[in-house]
Amino acid sequence: MSAGTLYLLPTPLADGTAAAVLPEETLVVARRLDLFLAEDAKSARAFLKAAQHPEPIRQLRIVEIGHQPDAAAIDGWLEPIIEGCDAAIVSEAGCPGVADPGAQIVARAHARGIAVRPLVGPSAILLALMASGLNGQTFRFVGYLPQESAALAARLRELERESRGGETQLWIETPYRNDRMFEALLAHCAPETWVCLAIDLTASGETVMTRRVAEWQSLPPARRPALHKHPTVFALLAASVRNRSSQ
Questions:
Q1: Does 99 lie in the same domain as 129?
Q2: End of a domain among 60, 87, 118?
Q3: How does residue 242 score in pLDDT terms, banded at 50, 70 and 90?
Q4: If you count Cβ atoms within 10 Å of the first and of the last residue's Cβ in the chain, which end, N or C, has fewer?
Q5: Please, which pLDDT band fits residue 5 given cuts at 50, 70 and 90?
Q6: How much is the pTM?
Q7: Inter-axis angle of helices 74-82 and 103-111, to 10 degrees?
Q8: Rounded to whole angstroms, how far apart are CA atoms 126 and 144?
Q9: How far from 212 is each of 128, 130, 138, CA to CA, in Å?
Q10: Which domain holds residue 85?
Q11: How much of the chain, in percent, has pLDDT values that exceed 90?
């Protein structure tokens, strides 16, 4: 018997949007599988219910891999696929392996000769970049930044310096710390640097705004977008390399 296929199954970024943001082919695959390697079992069950999986959700095989999958467990997770069963990796939101768990499992799948197939779906990083107006030809996603104040300030200045070569810098933060991150950006980046906030992407309250630091600073707090507990992608680009026609 030939090995099955490991699918990389994107999930919606916002509740109630599966039908709007996922192509029919992606939903068809999700509905026919019964084995899922899920970052979080509870969110995977909610997604599969929203995707109208035809089987009772409780009967599906959902293996929780967590935020940092145990390398020693990966071969065991892949064994049903080696034996011919198709399966999918599912993150809590967005694309597996992109700012979410999955890369280790995919690497091991390649090593064991398992076919890997990525499916189309929303990526918060790419959606934010598309809507930012910043440089989409050269960019870097840097994950999470330090929490300690001095280290955060130093890292923001470092990203700004690196951005002067034309590279857009993108990162995310735990939503309840978004306000703190934004205030640090305004305090430590140059007035002419461009900063984008991409908030609640694909949700009904989606907001994407790109302004210079000086413009953000002059904006009354009441006119700034709500960030606290709202999933947000942050992006910056030093003004010296941005298209002059937009300044």
A1: no
A2: 118
A3: very low
A4: N
A5: very high
A6: 0.91
A7: 50
A8: 16
A9: 17, 18, 19
A10: 5-118
A11: 94
**Structural tokens at position 118:** 């990525």
pLDDT at 1: 64
Do 132 and 224 lie in one domain? The reply is yes
- Contact present, 23 and 103 (Cβ < 8 Å): no
Q: Are residues 230 and 135 in the same domain?
A: yes
Give the pLDDT of residue 239: 79
Count up the domains in the chain and report the number: 2
Listing DSSP states for the chain in one string gives ----EEEEE-B-SSTT-HHHHS-HHHHHHHHH--EEEES-HHHHHHHHHHTT-SS-GGGSEEEE--SS--GGGHHHHHHHHHTT--EEEE-SSB-TTSSSS-HHHHHHHHHTT-EEEE-----HHHHHHHHH-S-SSSEEE--PPPSSHHHHHHHHHHHHHHHTTT-EEEEE--GGGHHHHHHHHHHHS-TT-EEEEEESTTSTT-EEEEEEHHHHHHS-GGGSPP-TTS-EEEEEE-GGGS-GGG-
Domain's final residue, options 118, 136, 169: 118
